[in-house]
User: Fold these one by one.
Assistant:
Number 1:
Amino acid sequence: METRPLQVLRSGATPDSDVPPVSSGTVALWLMKVADDADAYGLLDAEERRRWKALIREDHRTRYLAAHGGLRRLLGRYLGIQAHEVTFVREACPRCGGPHGRPAVRGGKIHFSLSHSLDLVLFGFASTPVGVDIEAYPEAEVSTSVAEGLHPLERGEFALLAPETRPAAFTRCWARKEAYLKGTGEGLAGGLGRTYVGMGQEPATVPGWSLTDVWAPPGYAAAVAVSYQ
């Protein structure tokens, strides 16, 4: 089965830095620590503000502003426009054709993906569809419970692991799976058990995609999936 190398361009942790160009076979990743960003609210569109206002917990609101403000600033730099001028659209769902597929920028000049977990935010930018995910290790009982919905081969791999290694392996698998499902636009509705990505040290081959584990701080796992298209 064909695989293609993916060059990961790791970038600075601030959306105000210069952005590296992305081309076929490359992905630019930005890892940002969540911080108060009051200016970000003024960059959001009406839908983003509605979602922010619907959040009840203050830490969730802080994380949302940091993540979406950072995304807008980075996209503005890639597109050569002001952050507040970035216009988001939704692509067609690959499963039903409805208008709730992958988020995209109008005109499709660059593809992007966003993920956040606890106090970290991961951004990915590429010239073809891309998905990223970063996840903090869950409690042991959570990984055991959720693992029951994974691909049959992944469930088998999980069962063979020593208990103390299961949370890390599960999180590694989950990040790969979410990155891929974000990239395709299916999201979790695509089903955790349909595509095999593996729990081993290297991700499994997924046809049509480069799936790669990327560096994350201790206690986290992260992955990126980029389409060959």
Number 2:
Amino acid sequence: MTTATAPPTAPVTPATPPTAAQLAAAHGLTLSGARPSLPRYVAELWERRHFVTAYATARMQATYSTAKLGQVWHLVTPLLNAAVYYFIFGLVMRASHGVPDYVPFLITGVFVWDFIGSSVNAGTRSVHSNLGLVRALHFPRASLPLATVVQLFQQLLVTMGALVILLLAFGQTPGPSWLLAVPTLLLMAVFAAGCALVMARIGSKSPDVSQLMPFVLRTWMYSSGVMWSIDQMLRTDHLPHWVLMVLQLNPAAVYIDLMRFCLIDSFTAHSLPHHAWPVAIGWALLAGAGGFVYFWKAEEEYGRG
């Protein structure tokens, strides 16, 4: 009697374990720090708007927390700069010659430039100086440069109140044109925010850029008509045409001239150049939208290395 033998069975190979990417996808996990879509990024940034304002307010309060005068330095600093510029440019170099209302002309330019230049300079360091926060938490990195601009804009509103008092003290008369200072401030804020976003991305990858910024900003300030009249310079014949175009289209100079037109009687009495408002709006849109997209495209790279 023979017994049947079972056929040999094939060896059972263990199933291939799922990869980490497959496990993450199965459980709905996403890469931390991954760049979201642009609409989603805007929505996340809006959800954190209270963090931006709170962070900006805390930074403003901490800036001069160890100084005896405290927040008064927000006002004293631009006034001291204006006094130095008046002595050097107004008296020694006679830049005030032919410029009516030179003191209001100067302090208005100094206050506006202080906001624009400080926004660009602070934006350059906003990401790199907060690497610990960037690496520890997941949040839209644009919050950091935008918070610096919000902080400086809060300071600007304080100094604008002081500027109004100074203008009244120097004989300026309030008029309907003063209302145009509001859209001018908003355009300046959008432009400064866009520049801060651009410089924040550059500064996060090349920290040495922050060492060059004082020289760049000083050159930009001198070419923006803070201490002297670009209009008088445009009347000369010895400058090349392209230099005149650069001076006319310089965004800082445009915003300074707009603010002077709004607040100073001798400027308001003359018609504003036709290109001023279109150029101001164009620079705000270009810097604001372009700077935001430029910063967003590197969202995944911040904090690496």
